[in-house]
Design goal:
By secondary structure, the protein is an alpha/beta fold. The structure holds ligand 26Q. The site of ligand 26Q has 23 residues, from helix 6.
């Protein structure tokens, strides 16, 4: 390994030990590790080709991968080798790994889910290609100035990127606009604008190097490069015009998650990557000698939300217009391949595109949508469901109609899908909706993020849990073993000490590792209710202040998360939390007991740091609004107790870890609907709870913004007014639950038993289990056996022995 690193440093990076920067070393190590996965990657691809096996094609606008190097090292079991080599070279392994920038090609849950799925499919040996966009700029970087969020461009690709291979032989010409003409009785689309979709591949290696799949990301490039003639005439900027236009398509990830409606460029991005992926899928089918009619036997195309929903009409167009398949047959064939995952029920977040825009950009697709709509209407005499409404195409309905299976991402969410947004479609197609509760990969979220806990688990039950997470159940007998619980608690404490040290050096924040670490990390959204959390902090601060000698349980409330740049209210919540933190962290009466910290620039790597060091996991969304949540699962596995509502996968987590090991509060989804009907529900809740009234009063009087007393009038007006997400109505229940948390934390023996229960009983939330569900219920695919020819990877234990 050391020689390999030196070789890459010398011949690839062109530098020597005297001049090499940390980045050079990190890249040299990445290349050395990459070398060791290549034959496994080829073997998996060859085995798939040879078996003519059906593949999963996972189409997603987002892949929130984070760092790649540690993942590859862990899955190839190269930890010891890499550490030894780096130390021999005089380097700190930790510093080298931390030097890697996150690949932040996603907003949040949906993108991270896609990344966990890619890793699980490789671990299981499910042949798959992930398709997405190679954004030049991933999710923006967040910093705070005077407590306000500032966004700056993220530029991960400015560094040498060791993990991708450009496939110069895989390029497709994608068109937009133009017109549809009838030629010999056929409709032919002549596009006007065109760009090239260029393929870049990243290998995704599974646990133990068993299998490796490909993440293929498309980059937009100009059809004709640079216009030398114009350049020679002195028109320098104009000479590069075509280039600039094309490149904008893959320039930047849209930073909204669920609030703002799309723009023209967004639709172009969606069509660009979807159509390129379908072209690639058909090319592969032909290469392997498959007939178009067999496509459903060879390709399971999964749509990650509606963002690639144009795949329906595009696949019909390819089959019918370009390959002469009769229209009805084309629709049935496309449906046989396609399936669709829904990630939200919030009406404002369901994609709709104006028919005018669609007609301008994708004229043939608009015609085909009308045909698909008409074909579907035949099945329903009452014509209740249409794909178009008020001059817009409803992408959820389009995806539903073009898919053979549609899934929700938690049991509750799937039920609500059936009862609300897709009620009519569910009645028409009662077998189409299925549930596939989300999961997370234990390799990243336990094994690498929490080595102390992992060592304890492996020492107790062996290492089978890593790719069979339900084996964590075997910890059950140890939950009454004081020696086990001691080590379990020590691992958590050491993780908290590490985090405290990092907070001190990286953020100049001093916290006591003995305090409860109470953590809410996720996108900032009204429905996720970070403002409920900060209201409780304010009320607690007021209580402590009124009785500074009380028996308080010390807490550090940690927040992290980004607000969409255009989401004004979410940005006000960030500012409020920062203003509250600034005041109360400096209050000598209370800061022994309560601190508030808002860490900037939340990303995958920060999550890996925070989750293993957390005691309390905040999952407090308005019931019915969070489709699943996946952070909730990561926390439970790492032994944080949840304070949460009956929302998304919280429901299933609580069922598994046991009601006694979960702090439940708040209204149910049904009660939420009923409560909204009550006139003045917020005012009534405020009148009934003096603590809530006092907390709101402090905000509105400017206690946290003394030089700008009205700074938060918007927040206060919202909460005392229509309070759509029922923060006030749930406040008292939340406060009471937090006091139950305090009481439990004050009993360390009880707490650590509850925490260990969470770890032992959360094994079902592995994304391996989720993927097996999709394989059986949606994709109809079996895993392939591990390719032969491979020398087994040494386990670290064997090497040490
Ligand atoms: C749509 C149109 C225009 C621009 C952006 C978007 C857009 C982008 C991202 C809409 C939605 C998203 C992301 C949604 C998302 O992350 N949803 C989360 O998915 C997780 C995985 O299933 C769930 O656990 C979360 O509950 C859900 O909020």
């Amino acid at each position: 390994m050391r020689d390999a690193i030196m070789r890459h440093l010398t011949y690839e990076l062109g530098t020597d030990t005297e001049h090499a920067t940390l980045q050079d070393w990190r890249i040299a190590l990445s290349l050395a590790v990459r070398d060791r996965l290549m034959d496994r990657w080829f073997a998996a691809a060859n085995a798939t080709r040879k078996a003519k096996a059906k593949r999963v094609y996972y189409l997603s606008m987002e892949f929130l991968i984070g760092r790649l190097l540690e993942d590859a090292i862990v899955n190839l079991r190269l930890n010891e080798q890499a550490c030894t080599a780096l130390k021999d070279l005089g380097l700190s392994p930790e510093a080298v790994l931390l030097d890697e920038p996150d690949a932040a090609l996603g907003n949040g849950g949906l993108g991270r889910l896609a990344a966990c799925f890619m890793e699980s499919m490789s671990t299981i040996g499910c042949p798959a290609v992930g398709y997405g966009i190679r954004y030049e700029h991933g999710l923006f970087r967040q910093s705070f100035v005077d407590g306000r969020q500032i966004e700056t461009a993220e530029d991960w690709l400015n560094q040498y990127h060791a993990w991708e291979f450009q496939r110069r032989d895989v390029q497709f010409r994608m068109s937009f606009g133009g017109e549809v003409v009838e030629e010999n009785g056929k409709s032919v689309w002549h596009g006007e604008q065109a760009v090239i979709a260029a393929a870049f591949d990243t290998p995704i290696i599974g646990w133990n190097g068993r299998w490796a799949n490909t993440l293929r990301l498309w980059s937009a490039q100009p059809v004709q490069g640079f216009d030398l003639e114009r350049f020679n005439r002195g028109e320098y900027a104009a000479a590069a015009e075509g280039e600039a236009l094309a490149r904008t398509i893959s320039r930047v990830l849209y930073p909204d998650d669920t609030t703002e409606q799309g723009k023209e460029l967004r639709l172009k991005q969606e069509y660009f990557f979807t159509a390129a992926s379908l072209r690639d899928i058909l090319r592969r089918l032909k290469l392997e000698g498959g007939a178009l009619a067999d496509l459903p036997k060879k390709a399971a195309i999964q749509l990650n939300d509606t963002h690639p929903a144009i795949a329906g009409p595009e696949l019909v167009r390819l089959l019918h217009d370009e390959n002469g398949m009769p229209l009805d047959e084309a629709i049935v064939t496309a449906r046989g391949c396609l399936s669709y995952t829904n990630h939200t029920l919030m009406p404002e977040a369901l994609e709709r595109w104006s028919e005018d825009l669609m007609t301008r950009l994708l004229p043939r697709h608009m015609q085909l949508i009308e045909r698909i709509d008409a074909a579907h209407a035949v099945k329903q005499p009452d014509r209740k469901v249409t794909l178009r409404e008020n001059g817009e195409v409803k992408m959820g309905e389009l995806a539903f109609v073009m898919a053979h299976k549609v899934n929700g991402v938690s049991a509750l969410h799937t039920e609500l899908m059936k009862q609300t947004v897709f009620a009519e479609l569910h009645r028409l197609h009662p077998d189409r909706i299925v549930n596939e509760t989300n999961g997370v990969t234990p390799r990243r979220w336990v094994l690498s993020a929490n080595p102390r806990l992992s060592r304890l688990i492996t020492a107790t039950i062996g290492e089978g849990w890593v790719d069979d997470l339900e084996q964590l159940e075997k910890l059950e007998p140890s939950l009454t073993d004081p020696a086990f619980l001691d080590t379990y608690a020590a691992a958590k404490r050491d993780n908290k000490v590490d985090l405290s040290n990092w907070l001190a050096t990286a953020h100049d924040v001093k916290v006591d590792p003995e305090a409860m670490f109470d953590v809410q990390i996720k996108r900032i959204h009204e429905y996720k209710r970070q403002h409920l959390n900060i209201l409780e902090a304010i009320a607690l601060w007021q209580d402590i202040k009124a009785n500074p000698n009380g028996n308080w349980v010390p807490r550090v409330k940690i927040f992290a998360g980004k607000a969409a740049p255009g989401y004004v209210f979410a940005k006000e919540i960030i500012r409020l939390i920062n203003d509250v933190a600034a005041l109360i962290n400096n209050d000598p009466d209370t800061n022994r007991y309560l601190k508030v910290v808002f860490l900037p620039n939340y990303n995958v790597s920060l999550a890996e740091r925070l989750i293993p060091a957390s005691d309390l996991s905040e999952q407090i969304s308005t019931a019915g609004k969070e489709a699943s949540g996946t952070g909730n699962m990561k926390f439970a596995l790492n032994g944080a107790l949840t304070i949460g509502t009956l929302d998304g996968a919280n429901v299933e987590i609580r069922e598994r870890v046991g009601a006694r090991n979960f702090f439940l509060f708040g209204m149910t989804a049904d009660e939420v609907v009923a409560r909204r009907e009550i006139e003045d529900h917020a005012r009534k809740a405020i009148a009934a709870d003096p603590r809530l009234a006092d907390a709101l009063k402090a905000i509105s009087q400017g206690v946290f913004s003394p030089r700008d007393r009205h700074r938060f009038r918007g927040v206060v007006a919202n909460l005392t007014g229509h309070d759509y997400f029922l923060v006030c109505s749930d406040f008292t229940a939340y406060w009471d639950a937090q006091r139950r948390v305090d009481a439990a934390f004050a009993d360390p023996d009880a707490w650590r038993r509850m925490a260990a229960c969470n770890t032992a009983r959360s094994g079902w939330f592995s994304s391996d289990r989720t993927i097996r569900g999709y394989m059986a219920d949606v994709w109809n695919i079996d895993p392939l056996p591990e390719p032969e020819t491979q020398a087994p990877l040494q386990s670290s234990a064997a090497r040490l022995g």
